[in-house]
Write a structure and sequence with these properties.
- With 512 residues, the protein is of the alpha/beta class.
- The chain folds into three domains: 126 residues, 3-Layer(aba) Sandwich (Rossmann fold); 124 residues, Serine Threonine Protein Phosphatase 5, Tetratricopeptide repeat (Alpha Horseshoe), CATH 1.25.40.80; 191 residues, DNA Cyclobutane Dipyrimidine Photolyase, subunit A, domain 3 (Orthogonal Bundle), CATH 1.10.579.
- Helices cover 46% and strands 6% of the residues.
- Helix 2 links the parallel strand 2 and strand 3.
- The longest helix is centred in the N-terminal third of the chain and has 20 residues.
- Bound molecules: flavin-adenine dinucleotide.
- Flavin-adenine dinucleotide binds next to helix 10, helix 12, helix 15 and helix 17.
């Protein structure tokens, strides 16, 4: 039978390693590549929207080169599909498996609608290295709660599948995409302005979205073979002025880059040569991703505290003022404020920078729930990813996975480790750029004359610290101990190192 297929792009915005797209093109006489812009479904901010539109334009361009086009339709999928099935005479619908619970609900509803319209549904795994369902089945339906446990399950499954071949014109032989001359008006990729964003108000366009940019970025990194082989995540720097890790995360999140393609390209670079190992290697980073995806797929209410069986129940404060100061980079701690400024303007920050600001917001200093931080990241990160964001916030809030809650990042000392002179702070907080290195992390300690010479009076041009770190972290440590004692899962350190001691001896295990 010759099918009339819709391939529904959601994540997976690419032609390479897209088995569901290949399935759509098989025995197909009519193909509609579709993307649904559902305004109700996500909290993405301006930078992430720009990235998405870039990715859609890139996809449309690549499809056009093969004589096809992308159809962008606005609305809620459950309402859009019945109309499209009828209008396009659809017999088959294909899409990539999405493991996130809200997405699964949506997909189940769409699959039911398809069945009612006599449309066959094909779903393929390609957003994760492994089929999450298989991994869970291997573990009795439960998510492994440690990285080592996940690794041992994956070892029994063997290496991840190789990527599927990229879609080419040959796959589309005999397959036609019906397009009108009004296609751009009816189904074109909208502009940022049409989505209510003013491009002039946006941050620098450092990471253009799309498969073409993703593959170019991957190629550029894979050429740095010694760097790839020597990559150890804890040795990369949160304060470097240009990224010290790959910044492939936005591309992986939107599926402009296949994680399996990334895995196997790394494998080629590793072949026959000594290289770093998980958890700190680049393969190791992709396994962290797999770890949080597996957890997110099966643990109820994974992105929340209440109703989440692995999450410590904590009496976080409801403090909108602290939350706002943190979000806006107005805490009075330059290292924290510089990171949040980078996040707001560029949409990406280093992993350890995420550690620093997440710890500061939650158990370190402000005692605001990790769920609030998660929502801010969801809006501001280009790579905001439901499973990874929730899993990492659970970790940093010492609410699951990571229990060494007595390890607290100092908002002063941590940045100094890799950037004594504060070049990173000077870049993102130009108001502080003329402070001497001695005071750049603690400008409130500078004598008035120094502040005047720097052209910045603390309390007038830049805020005073919102809390006193030492006192706040000691107090919070007590609250965290109480929360753990209440749960009855107290796992105290044998000799109970102080916060200050922990700052000095921060273990690498913390830097997952
Ligand atoms: P690289 O070091 O180059 O790693 C390569 C890839 O491995 C990344 O692109 C990513 O896909 C994966 N990876 C790396 N570190 C992790 C990790 N800790 N957990 C899971 N996968 C990882 N990452 C997101 O992609 N989306 C998020 O929403 C997100 N939220 C986070 C929230 C907090 C509080 C923290 C501490 C971390 C969060 N991370 C998130 C994980 C991590 O910080 C980013 O994946 C990483 O910094 C992205 O930069 P990169 O591509 O240069 O990473």
């Amino acid at each position: 039978m010759q099918h009339s297929s819709i391939h529904w792009f959601r994540k997976g915005l690419r032609l390479h390693d897209n088995p569901a797209l290949l399935a759509a093109a098989t025995d197909c006489c009519r193909l509609h590549p579709l993307f649904i812009l559902d305004p109700s479904s996500n909290r993405a901010g301006a930078n992430a929207r720009r990235f998405l539109l870039d990715a859609l334009l890139d996809l449309d361009g690549s499809l056009r080169e093969m004589g096809s086009r992308l159809f962008v339709v606005r609305g809620c999928p459950q309402e859009v599909f019945p109309c499209l099935f009828r209008a396009w005479g659809t017999t088959r619908l294909t899409f990539e498996v999405d493991t996130e619970p809200p997405a699964r609900q949506r997909d189940t509803a769409v699959a039911e609608l398809a069945a009612q319209h006599g449309v066959e549904v094909i779903q393929k795994v390609s957003h994760t290295l492994y089929d999450t369902e298989r991994v869970l089945a291997l573990n009795g339906g439960k998510a492994p709660l440690t990285y080592k446990h996940l690794q041992s399950l994956l070892t029994s499954l063997g290496p991840p599948e190789k990527p599927a071949p990229a879609l080419t014109q040959e796959h589309l032989q005999g397959c036609h995409t019906p397009c009108q001359t009004s296609h751009d008006t009816d189904y074109g990729v909208p502009t940022l302005e049409e989505l209510g964003q003013n491009p002039a108000e946006m941050g620098p366009h450092l990471y253009p979205g799309g498969e073409t940019a993703a593959l170019a970025r991957l190629d550029a990194h894979m050429e740095r073979t010694a760097w790839v082989r020597g990559f150890k995540k804890p040795e990369t720097e949160p304060t470097s002025l240009s990224p010290s890790t790959t910044v492939l995360s936005p591309y992986i999140k939107f599926g402009c880059l296949s994680v399996r393609t990334f895995w196997w390209r790394l494998d080629e670079v590793y072949q026959g040569r000594e290289h770093s190992q998980p958890p700190v290697s680049l393969h190791g980073q992709l396994l962290w991703r797999e770890f949080f995806y597996t957890a997110g797929a099966s643990i109820p209410n994974f992105d929340r505290m209440v109703g989440n069986p692995i999450c410590l129940q904590v009496d976080w404060d409801d403090n909108p003022q602290y939350l706002r100061a943190w979000r806006e980079g107005q805490t009075g701690y330059p290292f924290i404020d510089a990171i949040m400024t980078q996040l707001r303007s560029e949409g990406w920050i280093h992993h350890l920078a995420r550690h620093a600001v997440a710890c500061f917001l939650t158990r370190g200093d402000l005692w605001v729930s990790w769920e609030e931080g998660l929502k801010v990241f969801e809006e501001l990160l280009l790579d905001a990813d439901w499973s990874l964001n929730a899993g990492n916030w659970l970790w940093l809030g010492s609410s699951a996975f990571f229990h060494r809650y007595f390890h607290v990042y100092s908002p002063v000392a941590f940045g100094k480790k890799t950037d004594r002179d504060g070049a990173y702070i000077r870049k993102y907080l130009p108001i502080l750029k003329d402070f001497p290195a001695e005071y750049i992390y603690e400008p409130w300690k500078a004598p008035r004359a120094v502040q005047e010479r720097a052209g910045c009076l603390v309390g007038t041009h830049y805020p005073r610290p919102i809390v006193e770190h030492r006192a706040a972290s000691e107090r919070n440590l007590g609250r965290m101990k109480a929360a753990r004692a209440q749960k009855g899962t107290k796992r105290e350190p044998p000799a109970g190192p102080s916060v200050a001691e922990s700052r000095r001896k921060k273990s690498k295990a913390e830097q997952h």
